[in-house]
User: What shape does this take?
Amino acid sequence: MPPNDSAGHPSPREPDPRYSALISNAAAIRAVASAVESTLGPKGLNCMLVDRGGDVTVTNDGSTILSRIDASHPAARILVRAARSQDEEVGDGTTTTAVLAAALISEGQSHVLRGVPVSMLIEGLRRGIGAAVEFVESRAIRCESIEDAALESAVRVAARGEEQIARAVLNAAGVLGVERLTDPGFDLRQSLVLAPGGRTESFAGIVLARERLNRQMPEALSDVTCLVISDALEPEAVETEALTTERGFSAYVQNLERFKASVTALAATGVGLVAVQKGVHDIAEQALTEAGCIVLRRVGVSDIARLAGHTGARVLKRQALLDGPVPAGAFGRAESVETDSRRGHVLIKGGAGEPAATVLVGAGTREVAEETRRMAEDACGALQSALRTGLAPGGGSVELAAARSLDAIRAEISGMAAYGLDCVREALRKPLAQIAANAGYNPLEKVEQASAAQERAHSCSIGVDCDSGDAADMLALGVLDPVGVRTRALTTAGEVAEAVLRINTIVRMKDAPDEDGPSNVDGGV
Assistant: This one.
């Protein structure tokens, strides 16, 4: 065992060449984390992303930064992939994941260089992460409805304080209901539609990125009967070679007349919206235009399903039209259908089928609209995660309280595994420290100030008010985060740290061998 310093930690010593892989990997992780840590908190700054063509994206969204960063180092890619997984699973918390992972690895590196075995370090790290996750989950505040004030606060925080975005997301959630939002297969982020030049708003309905077939069709209709066809609205085809024969041409004429009759009968039903997955014949276009119908063609498979579900229509094939009158039960209904030629989409509102909601994300320019969309995506992810897992005090306060709680179990850990627990304890202080630093305060001072205030008040919700710099109760300020986001960030950061700390050697592989070449691949450093 290496000698200890006055604080009881192993004394530093000269880096061993065996640790070159760890040193390189830890440096790469810190570099990636440094790109996003300045965005954390209400006073976080933006990052400018520049591609090789000179196009610029300015964003405060950690997920966007990490997904577009040019990470060539293998360890950096591990963190980027982990952050992407965090965003896909819970829709938020990518910056916290990167900050926690970098802190865990940095602390772990310092202990390994002092002589702590990696296996013992990871044992303590796992214990600490598990205890911290249990602590955060035990402080969960359950949300029972969309109107819950705590839920509204969490959505507002995720939307970076943008009231219009938060309100639009909450209104959309109100249309869908708690049961739909907590369905594991449903993602509220899919309801977002970019609408540059407009304002951010929500409505009960769906948007299809299609335009009416021609300008003579109505721009808007109310109390609309809808028909959905997962096929072409065209006559039955006849082989080109057959048209050269009298029999083949006769079949073509019969098919055309049969199709014309079926389309005329369809137009007479008063149908207002016909959505077709494939092409639309001129005869059908003319008949339905004269009947005052809006026709959409080449509608995607997923949009066909969404439209049918929302309006309550039964999806038909072309043959159903040709065989006779369309069954009354095949039609769906919508309160209104509105076309927007400027943006190239159609709004179907108030369908008679399953509830649906859309959030139109608008801004003055496309660049601003894209950043607004990123904020709306965070708000959607936070809302669903909060309904599924509950809420916890934000602003790094609950992580700080979890760090304090680890003191009680450190004595229970024997041997050098305790240093792994210390890594977790120090990393859990990092989110609040970074938030304070981004607000212009001394992070060490503010962390100790908040920690002392938590101990005095026996509270896990005291953090730092970024406006005044004083210790403040995050619950009272309405600063809350979904429990699922916090615990997932902790778990993912722990997994990244363990993976990186375990790497002892970096080997460059040869290119894949030819089919006739050797099966073994030797590597070079």
User: Anything to note?
Assistant: Confidence is low (pLDDT under 50) at residues 519-525. The chain has 20 helices and 16 strands. Residues 323 and 446 are 76 Å apart (CA to CA).
